[in-house]
Amino acid sequence: MRVIIAEKPSVAREYARVLKVKSRKDGYFEREGVCITWAFGHLVELADPKEYGFEKWRLADLPIVPERFKLAVSSNEGARKQFNTIKSLFDRATEIVVGTDAGREGELIFRYIYQMCQCKVPFKRLWISSQTDKAILDGFRNLKPGTEYNHLADAARSRSEADWMVGINATRCLTLSAYSKTVLSLGRVQTPVLAMICSRYIEHRDFTPEPYWMLLSTEILHRNPTGCCILCWKKTAKCSGQRTKPHFGRKKRHRQLCSNSLPWPPAPKQKPKR
């Protein structure tokens, strides 16, 4: 029996529709010789530190670097039920088709499930980047051996394990060192992203507006159809009083000239009489 596993229920429904697998069961679609099931994203994840004997938070235990990483099914009840469904299908399968997303994380989702099920059934890879009917059918006609993606799986595992070590150790270290009553969470991705957001917020909060004036020369626009000239005046402590000749070119439509070298302020433009 061929078992096709998708990354999420919506994708499994598309596969079932295109392949005309119409019978809906609890956790999968079925027709003679074919079953289509699905995961819920990261159904299987790296186990928590307590699985390695580090349930209590102590600085003396850091850094926590497991010799061999363990896996655990998500604690969500629905996720556990779906994992058991997948495992029962894998036990009956003679061939598995990996229909998770075509990328590193999609590969990791399947490999963790496959490892957790202790499955030895050979598998093939469906590699498509579109969910159109034609793309799905073409993908199933051109399945590739799963071993071709072993390097991608290794890269995904390395990223996952590195995230685990950085997050677990940095979070525990900061929380304990700061004597915090709440968890101070750090992560390889979340901390730099949060730092960029905070930096931008501080720049916005401390911004001091400065007056400036802009003059658009329509006369030059008529003479030079490739672009227009924008002159900017900014208030400064000193003004040299020298004029700077504007430069024009075809590379940019707008040339901006900032100028303590131009007289400040410009004369106000008079409205034309009607």
Description:
This protein is α/β, with parallel strands linked by helices and 274 residues long. It folds into two domains: 2-166, 3-Layer(aba) Sandwich (Rossmann fold), CATH 3.40.50; 212-259, no CATH class. Helices cover 36% and strands 19% of the residues. It contains seven helices and twelve strands. The strands form three sheets. The chain has a seven-stranded mixed sheet. Strand 2 (23-25) and strand 3 (28-31) form a beta hairpin. Helix 3 (104-116) packs across helix 5 (150-177). The longest helix has 28 residues, at 150-177. The termini are far apart. Residues 236-265 have low confidence and may be disordered.
